[in-house]
Amino acid sequence: TESKHRRRGGDLKTGSTELGSAVTGSPLTAVLPASTTGKKSTVLSSETRKELAKQAKVTKEERRAQIDERHKYLISRLADGIGLSEQQVEEAIISDDKFQLIERFFASSGLKKLLFFYQDVLQQKSNASLRSDGSTNSLLQKKLFITMGSTENFTGTCAFFLRTSDKVITASNVSQEVNFGIFDCINGNILQGLEFFLSQIMIPALKSQQNWGAVKEGLKNSQIQDFLYSVDKFVGTLSSSRQNIEDKIQLTKVDIDIYVSNLQNPSDYITAG
Q1: Class of residue 17 by CB neighbours under 10 A (exposed 0-12, middle 13-18, buried 19+)
Q2: What average pLDDT does the chain have?
Q3: Which of 30-44, 88-102, 132-146 is predicted least confidently?
Q4: Which of 72, 120, 140, 251 is the most exposed place for a label (fewest CB within 10 A)?
């Protein structure tokens, strides 16, 4: 079963897009964390850089060899939903430091969800030179990366896979046991994205669903009708809350120093009050 927020075209596809882990960045990243004093940075030697690059290449090829029809199914859904080529998606996955989450998702009684973010991430150039202040040149670029959804801020597109059972995910059952969907954080507004997702995709899909499992009457069943009413009501509440937040009053911060600097004695404070 596949529910998609919307088909993403080639507008997200750029030649300069770098794909990989949002946490570790490029395996060639050459700057270590600053020392405890916060005043110095240590730069890896060229030999160490080469060794890290060699290890990263070996790891990627080992992961590439593990890719089977299950992975290819995920890759094709991601490529179609986000608007990238399958080669770009594959490169992102095998370069990601959370690659093993995919295996945990496929396992018996494994992870119930597998999340991917595709959004702007601050990245360092692999050949960036160290500045005098110890920093390197960084820039925002779109990245596709695996996430648990709890450590990175969501600002772009979330592609998700959901399991429908505790069965082992195999090449023969992956299309039946795994659901796929796309969720957009529209213009950085996650509430608006959620409202759109529920009102335009999920609710119409639910109201058109004929098979409700053990509930034989389907949409005629009073419990199903109550459930759909509750979902509709939730979306209405969500919409109202979002509008209230957008219409909130922004208070301007006032520098009170200019008002209190000339107050010298209690009578001055009384007068100011």
Answers
A1: middle
A2: 79
A3: 30-44
A4: 251
Q: What is the pLDDT of residue 33?
A: 41
Residues 6+ apart with CB under 8 A from 75: 67, 86, 89, 90, 93
Q: Is the distance from CB of 158 to CB of 183 less than 8 angstroms?
A: yes
- Helices 222-246 and 190-197 pack at an angle, to 10 degrees, of 150
Please write the tens of the pLDDT for every residue from 79-89.
999 999 999 99
- Residue/partner pairs of 45-52 with CB below 8 Å, 24 or more apart: 52/27, 52/28
DSSP for 158-187, written as a single string: EEEEEESSSSPP-TTTHHHHEEEEEEE-BT
- State the Cα–Cα distance between residues 94 and 140, nearest whole angstrom: 21
> CA-CA distance, 127 to 44, in Å (whole number)?
12
DSSP 10-67: GGG--TT---S-TTT--TT--BPPP-TTSS--PBPPHHHHHHHHHHHHHHHHHHHHH-
pLDDT at 18: 40
Enter the DSSP assignment of 156. Answer: S
Position 29 pLDDT exceeds 80: no
Check if the beta carbon of residue 194 is closer than 8 Å to that of residue 158: no
Average pLDDT in the 57-70 region?
A: 95
Query: Beta strand 157-163 with 178-184: parallel, antiparallel or unpaired?
Result: antiparallel
Cβ atoms within 10 Å of 88's Cβ, excluding its own: 19
SS3 140: strand
Contacts of 176 (CB under 8 A, 6+ apart): 164
- In angstroms, what is the C-alpha Rg of the chain? 25
Least confident of 29-38, 52-61, 138-147, 257-266: 29-38
Output the pTM of the full model: 0.64
